[in-house]
């Protein structure tokens, strides 16, 4: 397998030449005098090159002295010693991606502590299976680190305590680690990607907040978190005292909880207590599957419950008009509920807007099922039809009555009130739903074959 240096030379040439020489061509070009290593880009991407080591230190240092972003995802690096050798020869690197390299071997203490890489601010370790002791060592060696990616690493607990861990310290019921710590580990880290890890306890997630006290962005989407309660597992005991879900996240501004296991409105109310939270993603919750409402209605209730959140599920900031409408809709929604079912937010909003009169309920939805006369030649038949069916689906269901396949069929809609002035309207679009024709009971649909070129107007009489 090639070293980083060999992979670099294969891509850019042994002397740093990006383009091969072209012989026997009368071309005059201006070639500036510069070091060959400058042909290596400052943003260097060497994915899927089977790299397993650094290579000759002097040659690598000469070629990579100006590299500031280095992407080595999907290679064969397994030893941290080689990763550190690469970092030593790329002193200006600010961004390093090592995703999908199997780096589960533990970092030795001497390797992690000397030297320190002051320039590296972004480190991506997705699906590397790096262990917590190694992460702790890296954090001590990277004082300028601001963004860390630890997604898809199969973590079921968090341990940045630096203590020896025994399996008996893990709860059999919820898999979390019964080792608590609240000491800061790295105060510069602002953004943490932790998506797709099989961690279910918010108490474990809170350990990340204590370890990184200035954390502003946290992504824990695709994690099977069931509740934001700090300590819901009875088997673990309550060593957390009276701590709340938000206690560890005083500076958190962005939180992604998409596709987690949160299933009650109580979780939304807990999110409302995060003091600095301004942007939130909460799509794909089991709560939305159980809550019968449109997406618009759900958004109104969310906006009303989350007074501090400015952007919800992406997009622009929630405008003042939408928030006002959401809060009034929230009051009216819970006005119809028993008083015991009204959340605290209801009473807060009543204090702001007062008690509102209920809106007049006007159902503008079309009838779901209507009775239509179907005419095919000399045969007529009255059927009940679901107006949410498509034209294509209707044709398939009329094959037996028509006596020929749907692919050979034409349909014409006749409005009972406009039949004498407007005539039949061909239903040309297969994906169009029937209600879009304003179809009502008593109307007629004429079935014709594509082999015919016209319809007798008298057939509509």
TrEMBL record:
Gene3D superfamilies: Phosphatidylinositol 3-kinase Catalytic Subunit, Chain A, domain 1 (3.10.20.90), Ribonuclease Inhibitor (3.80.10.10). Residues 360-447 form the Ubiquitin-like domain. It comes from the Eukaryota. The lineage of its organism: Eukaryota, Metazoa, Ecdysozoa, Arthropoda, Hexapoda. This is Tubulin-specific chaperone cofactor E-like protein. Keywords: Leucine-rich repeat, Repeat. InterPro entries: Leu-rich_rpt, LRR_dom_sf, TBCEL_Ubl, Ubiquitin-like_dom, Ubiquitin-like_domsf.
């Amino acid at each position: 397998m090639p070293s980083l240096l060999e992979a670099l030379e294969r891509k850019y040439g042994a002397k740093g030449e990006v383009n091969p020489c072209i012989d026997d061509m009368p071309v005059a070009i201006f070639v500036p005098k510069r070091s060959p290593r400058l042909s290596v880009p400052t943003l260097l991407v060497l994915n899927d090159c089977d790299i397993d080591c650094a290579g000759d230190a002097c040659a690598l240092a000469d070629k990579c002295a100006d590299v500031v972003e280095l992407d080595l995802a999907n290679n064969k690096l397994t030893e941290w010693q080689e990763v550190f050798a690469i970092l030593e020869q790329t002193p200006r690197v600010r961004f390093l991606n090592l995703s999908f390299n199997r780096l589960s071997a533990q970092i030795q203490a001497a390797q992690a502590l000397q030297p320190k890489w002051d320039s590296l601010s972004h480190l991506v370790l997705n699906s590397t299976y790096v262990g917590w002791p190694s992460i702790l060592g890296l954090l001590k060696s990277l004082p300028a680190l601001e963004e860390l990616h630890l997604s898809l690493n199969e973590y079921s607990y968090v341990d940045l305590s630096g203590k020896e861990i025994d399996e008996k310290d893990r709860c059999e019921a919820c898999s979390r680690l019964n080792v608590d710590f609240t000491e800061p580990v790295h105060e510069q880290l602002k953004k943490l990607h932790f998506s797709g890890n099989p961690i279910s306890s918010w108490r474990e997630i809170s350990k990340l907040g204590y370890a990184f006290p200035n954390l502003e962005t946290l992504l824990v989407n695709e994690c099977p978190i069931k509740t934001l309660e700090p300590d819901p597992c009875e088997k673990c005991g309550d060593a957390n005292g009276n701590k709340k879900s938000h206690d560890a996240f005083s500076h958190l501004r962005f939180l992604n909880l998409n596709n987690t296991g949160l299933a009650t409105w109580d979780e939304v109310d807990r999110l409302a207590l995060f003091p600095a939270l301004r942007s939130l993603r909460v799509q794909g919750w089991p709560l939305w599957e159980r809550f019968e409402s449109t997406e618009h209605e759900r958004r109104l209730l969310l906006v009303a419950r989350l007074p501090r959140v400015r952007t919800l599920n992406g997009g622009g900031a929630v405008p003042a008009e939408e928030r006002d409408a959401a809060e009034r809709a929230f009051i009216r929604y819970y006005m119809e509920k028993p008083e015991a079912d009204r959340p605290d937010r209801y009473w807060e909003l009543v204090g702001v807007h007062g008690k509102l009169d209920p809106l007049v309920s006007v159902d503008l939805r079309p009838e779901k099922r209507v009775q239509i006369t179907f005419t095919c030649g000399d045969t007529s038949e009255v059927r009940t039809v679901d107006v949410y069916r498509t034209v294509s689906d209707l044709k398939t269901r009329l094959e037996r009555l028509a006596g020929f396949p749907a692919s050979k069929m034409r349909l014409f809609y006749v409005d009972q009130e406009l039949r004498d002035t407007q005539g039949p309207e061909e239903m040309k679009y297969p994906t169009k739903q029937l209600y879009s024709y304003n179809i009502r009971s008593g109307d007629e649909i004429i079935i014709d074959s594509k082999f015919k070129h016209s319809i007798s107007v008298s057939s509509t009489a």
